[in-house]
Amino acid sequence: MKRFHVHLHVDDLAKSIAFYSKLFASPPARVETDYAKWMLDDPRINFAISTVGHSKGIDHLGIQAEDEAELAELKTRGLAADRTLLDEGETVCCYARSEKHWVTDPQGIAWEHFQTLDGTVPVYGQQKPVAKADSACFAPGALRGIPVNVSGNAKGACC
After folding, report:
1. Which of 8, 86, 101, 116 has its C-alpha lying 20 to 30 A from 74's C-alpha?
2. pTM higher than 0.85 for the full model?
3. Measured between alpha carbons, how far is 136 from 122 in angstroms, rounded to an integer?
4. Domain containing 102 — which CATH number?
């Protein structure tokens, strides 16, 4: 079963963790110095916050697939939406390995479709060379025309 995904940029991670932990009546499933994530079952959502990004507020929305078949279905839907689809393949983002692709809606809101793969990683994202010089982990900004950070420091957007 798929899981809805929301990623927010926040100014103060500690205050936001305290607020959302009370709001969700649950501590985060993962906390890093610049990131926190709740994997809630009611409602079924992957809710992430980070201090990494351009401005506070919604960075991107998404759908997390549980398996390859669900991810393939999401890719088919993204392609059918008549929008450019950015397929990253396997990548490292938000302290996890994943297989993902991106599509933006007509308003420029980035949608991430991804499947989290086994294992966690000790970094927020990875630098990955692609044809357009976009960083793999900075797809939301690149899709919205925001200048992409390719210097290797994690100041772009991810999951």
Report:
1. 8
2. no
3. 17
4. 3.10.180.10
Amino acid at 141: G
Residue 129 burial class via C-beta count within 10 angstroms: exposed 0-12, middle 13-18, buried 19 and up: exposed
Q: Which two tokens stand for residue 51?
A: 């201090």
Residue 148 maps to a domain = no
CA distance 150 to 24: 35
- Per DSSP, 148 falls in state P
Q: What percent of the chain has pLDDT over 70?
A: 74
Under 8 Å between Cβ of 101 and 85: yes
Cis peptide before 106 (omega within 30 of 0): no
Residue with the bigger pLDDT between 30 and 89: it is 30
- Rounded to whole angstroms, the Cα distance separating 77 from 71 reads 10
Residue 59 falls inside a structural domain: yes
pLDDT at 71 over 50: yes
